[in-house]
Design brief:
This protein is α+β, with helices and mostly antiparallel strands. It has seven helices and four strands; from the N terminus they run H-H-E-H-E-H-H-E-H-E-H. It has a four-stranded mixed beta sheet, sandwiched between helices.
Length: 202
């Protein structure tokens, strides 16, 4: 398989179209991402889904091949928006600065354990052109992040109110700077998974 074919597959099947999780109820997915987009002032076509819900199984590391489970699996969204990438980068950099300066104080053992790790992941993500909303605390200080949490809840609540769909337990979103960054990251994850499973990529 040629490397360029992996990225063509990424564009067609991992960035566009109806995810596996909504193969029997595409209308619910479209309504949910429409409501997500309304919160942030973004067109629904800029909102899509990754994770096991996209293909029906996970591509992630030790979880590779794990089947999507509507009762247990999280919903991993992504938004492509330069505007929101800039806003979320500002929130991320503020959180990182406050944490390193001792101003952002963990409220419990969970935050004490994961905040330093989240800060490192945010730094790495910004370099690659993306920011994960759930790595930043959902508090008033980080206004863009709070809006993203609100958008995720709108997506979640929409599914809970639609016949034939279950409300997911957790919805999170990664914000990409542009489509090139999104395709590079998502396609890179697929490429890594293929190589790890013995596929010959030229």
């Amino acid at each position: 398989m040629a490397k360029k074919d992996v990225f063509r597959f990424t564009r067609l099947w991992l960035c566009e179209g109806i995810p596996y999780a909504f193969r029997n109820n595409a209308a619910a997915y479209e309504l949910a991402r429409e409501n997500f987009g309304k919160v942030l002032g973004e067109h629904p076509r800029n909102v899509s889904m990754t994770g096991s819900g996209r293909l029906g199984f996970s591509l992630a590391g030790t979880k590779f091949g794990a089947a999507y489970n509507p009762d247990k699996s999280d919903v991993d969204l992504f938004l492509v928006s330069d505007t929101w990438f800039e806003k979320m980068t500002e929130d991320a950099e503020l959180f990182i600065a406050r944490l390193s300066g001792g101003l952002a104080v963990p409220r419990n053992e969970f935050e004490k354990k994961y905040w330093p790790e989240n800060a490192q992941r945010l730094k790495q993500g910004i370099i690659r052109g993306h920011v994960n909303q759930h790595y930043i605390p959902n508090v008033e200080r980080y206004k863009a992040t709070r809006s993203c949490y609100k958008a995720c809840r709108a997506f979640q609540a929409t599914l809970g109110g639609e016949e034939g769909t279950a409300e997911p337990k957790k919805v999170s979103v990664r914000i990409y700077q542009n489509w090139a960054r999104a395709e590079s990251q998502i396609g890179g994850s697929l490429l890594f998974a293929l190589k790890q499973t013995g596929h010959d990529i030229s």
